[in-house]
C-alpha cells in the first residue's frame, strides 16, 4: 500500500479498518516530506518526528480500544501559517512574527484536531497572506509542484503544493482574493472558497465588517474537499455572522445527474480581463467535458461595468487589509520590516472615509443583486481561475499581461488576480477545478461559482466534472524530477 498516494477518504477508511496504523501513516508522510519538501518548501515549522510518532501511537491505542475521534483520526495535517496553532509558531510569513507561538488554537485548528488530525507543522504563505505568490523573509519561497522554477500561487501556496506532492492527504487554506483557488489551479488540485459565513474564523480582529476572507478546504479529490468542509463548517458564537447550518451535509455522496444544468461562461468578461494566451481555450476544453455529460454551456455577461466592481473592491480591500497592518505600524520602526505591497495597502487606505466605504458597500450590494439576476438564467457561472500561467519564482508579481501580442500593464500588485474577485465580493461558493496544462506543462484551473449558500451543489457539479477529467487529474508532477531540480537550487 502506497500510503501517501491514498486519497484522504481512502486513508481514513484504511486507518479505521486497521489496514494501516497511524504510526505507519505518520512514518510514510514524514519520509515523503524529508525527501521532497526541500525542493518545494511547502511545509514549514515541521515538528519533532519522535513527538509526532508518539501522538500517532496514542491514536492507534484509541482505535485498539474502539475509540475514534472522527474522520481525520491519525491524519497528518499542516495548518496554513495564518491560523493560530497552540505550541507551534504562527508567523504570518512576517519577520515581526517570527517567534510568535500561540498558546491556543484558532477555531479551524481546534475543529480539525477534534476530528482526530495530528498537526505536524504549518504550510507556507506570503507575508500577511498578501499576493498570490508564496514567499516571505521567514521561510523563503514555495515552488510550483510541476516545475520548481515557477511560483506556486498563494496565499495558500504551501497547502496546494503539499497536496500535489503528496506531503499531506488534505489541506486547509484561506481565501480573500483567490487564495484557495489560484494555488489550487497552479497545483492541479481542488480548492473551494465556501459561502460567506460557512466556515467561521476565530480569533478575529473584527467579526462584523471583515467578511471578504474565509478559511476553507483543499483536496486532491472533490470528495476529500467535501469531507474536510464537513469538519470546518458550522456556526460558532465567536463569529456571529456564521451560517447556522452544520457541516454534516458535506459528507453525503456527490452522485447526481448534471443533465440540463445551465452554466454561464463569463470567460474574460468580453475582453475586459487581459489573459495570457491559452488560458481561455484550456478552460473552454474543461467546459466541453461538462457539455459532454449534458450541461448547457452558454456565453454570459456580467451585466454591469466590471471596472465599477473593481473600484468598489479596492475600497473594501484597502479598508480591511489596512486594519490588519495597522497594529504592526504602532511602532514606526516596523515599517522597515514589512513588505512594500503591505505598506502600499496601508498607505492607500489613509484618509479613506466612512462615506466612501458605505458608497462601495452600496456598489457591492448592486453587484450582488446583479449576480442574483444572472442566477435566474444560469445554475452556475464559470470563469478561468487565473489570468496568467504560473510565473517565474524570482518575480514578485506580474508587471504586465501579454495577450495576443499586446501587453497590458498591471497598475497594482494584485490587478492580475482580478478574475477571482467576483465570487468573493458576492459571498458566493466557488471551486477551482483542474482545467488543463500549457505547452510548458504548467496547470490552470476553472472557477465554478454557485448560488448563495449552494456549497453542496457546487461540490456536486465539481464531482461530475472530476469523473470526466481524469486525463487532467492523472497528470501528476514527477517527484523525482522535481527533487533533482530543487537540489540544483533556484533564486528567490
DSSP strand tally: 15
Element order: H for helix, E for strand: HHEHEHEEEHEHEEHEHEHHHEEEHEEHHH
Helix content: 25-40%
Which regions contain 5 or more consecutive residues with pLDDT less than 50? 480-492
Strand order of the largest sheet: 6-8-7-14-15-11-9-10
Tally of alpha and pi helices: 15
- CATH fold-level name: Amidase signature (AS) enzymes
Specify the biggest β-sheet: 8 strands, mixed
CATH architecture group name: Alpha-Beta Complex
Global outline: globular
Rounded Rg: 21 Å
CATH class: Alpha Beta
Q: Strand percentage, roughly?
A: 5-15%
Task: Decide which structural class fits the backbone.
Answer: alpha+beta
How many independent structural domains? 1
Mean pLDDT: 96
Distance between the amino and carboxyl termini: 37 Å
Organism: Rhodoferax sediminis
GO molecular function: catalytic activity
Protein name: Amidase
Would you write up a description of this structure?
The chain contains 15 helices and 15 strands. The model is unreliable at 480-492 (pLDDT under 50). It has a single domain (3-488), classed as Amidase signature (AS) domain (Amidase signature (AS) enzymes). Helix 2 (22-40) packs antiparallel against helix 3 (49-64) and helix 9 (306-325) crosses helix 10 (340-349). 35% of the residues lie in helices and 14% in strands. With 492 residues, the protein is α+β, with helices and mostly antiparallel strands. The strands form four sheets. The protein has an eight-stranded mixed β-sheet, sandwiched between helices. It is globular. This is Amidase. It comes from Rhodoferax sediminis.
Amino acid at each position: 500500500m502506497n500510503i501517501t498516494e491514498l486519497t484522504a477518504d481512502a486513508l481514513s477508511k484504511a486507518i479505521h479498518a486497521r489496514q494501516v496504523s497511524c504510526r505507519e501513516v505518520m512514518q510514510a508522510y514524514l519520509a515523503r516530506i524529508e525527501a521532497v519538501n526541500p525542493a518545494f518548501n511547502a511545509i514549514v515549522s515541521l515538528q519533532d518526528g519522535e513527538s509526532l510518532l508518539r501522538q500517532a501511537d496514542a491514536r492507534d491505542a484509541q482505535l485498539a480500544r474502539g475509540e475514534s475521534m472522527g474522520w481525520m483520526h491519525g491524519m497528518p495535517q499542516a495548518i496554513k501559517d495564518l491560523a493560530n496553532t497552540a505550541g507551534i509558531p504562527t508567523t504570518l510569513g512576517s519577520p515581526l512574527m517570527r517567534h510568535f507561538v500561540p498558546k491556543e488554537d484558532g477555531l479551524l485548528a481546534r475543529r480539525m484536531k477534534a476530528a482526530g488530525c495530528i498537526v505536524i507543522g504549518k504550510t507556507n504563505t506570503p507575508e500577511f497572506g498578501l499576493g498570490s505568490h508564496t514567499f516571505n523573509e521567514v521561510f523563503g519561497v514555495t515552488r510550483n509542484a510541476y516545475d520548481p522554477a515557477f511560483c506556486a500561487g498563494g496565499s495558500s501556496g504551501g497547502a496546494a503544493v503539499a497536496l500535489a506532492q503528496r506531503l499531506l492527504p488534505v489541506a486547509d487554506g484561506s481565501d480573500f482574493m483567490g487564495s484557495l483557488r489560484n494555488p489550487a489551479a497552479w497545483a492541479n488540485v481542488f480548492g473551494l472558497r465556501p459561502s460567506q459565513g460557512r466556515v467561521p474564523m476565530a480569533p478575529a480582529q473584527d467579526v462584523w465588517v471583515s467578511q471578504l476572507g474565509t478559511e476553507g478546504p483543499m483536496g486532491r479529490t472533490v470528495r476529500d474537499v467535501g469531507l474536510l468542509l464537513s469538519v470546518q463548517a458550522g456556526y460558532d458564537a465567536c463569529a456571529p455572522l456564521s451560517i447556522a447550518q452544520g457541516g454534516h451535509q458535506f459528507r453525503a455522496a456527490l452522485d447526481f445527474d448534471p443533465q440540463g444544468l445551465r452554466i454561464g461562461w463569463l470567460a474574460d468578461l468580453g475582453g475586459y480581463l487581459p489573459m495570457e494566451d491559452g488560458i481561455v481555450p484550456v478552460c473552454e476544453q474543461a467546459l466541453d467535458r461538462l457539455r459532454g455529460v449534458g450541461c448547457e454551456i452558454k456565453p454570459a455577461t456580467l451585466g454591469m461595468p466590471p471596472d465599477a466592481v473593481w473600484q468598489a473592491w479596492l475600497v473594501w480591500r484597502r479598508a480591511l487589509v489596512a486594519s490588519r497592518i495597522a497594529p504592526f505600524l504602532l511602532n514606526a520602526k516596523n515599517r522597515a520590516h514589512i513588505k512594500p505591497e503591505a505598506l502600499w495597502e496601508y498607505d492607500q487606505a489613509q484618509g479613506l472615509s466612512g462615506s466612501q466605504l458605505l458608497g462601495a458597500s452600496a456598489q457591492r450590494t448592486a453587484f450582488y443583486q446583479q449576480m442574483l439576476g444572472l442566477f435566474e438564467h444560469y445554475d452556475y457561472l464559470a470563469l478561468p481561475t487565473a489570468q496568467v500561467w504560473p510565473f517565474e519564482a524570482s518575480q514578485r508579481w506580474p508587471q504586465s499581461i501579454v495577450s495576443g501580442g499586446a501587453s497590458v500593464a498591471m497598475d497594482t500588485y494584485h490587478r492580475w488576480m482580478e478574475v477571482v474577485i467576483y465570487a468573493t465580493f458576492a459571498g458566493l461558493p466557488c471551486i477551482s477545478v483542474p482545467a488543463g496544462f500549457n505547452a510548458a506543462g504548467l496547470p490552470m484551473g476553472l472557477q465554478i461559482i454557485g448560488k448563495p449558500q449552494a456549497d453542496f451543489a457546487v461540490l456536486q457539479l465539481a464531482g461530475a466534472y472530476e469523473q470526466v477529467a481524469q486525463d487532467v487529474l492523472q497528470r501528476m508532477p514527477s517527484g523525482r524530477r522535481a527533487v533533482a531540480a530543487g537540489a540544483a537550487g533556484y533564486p528567490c
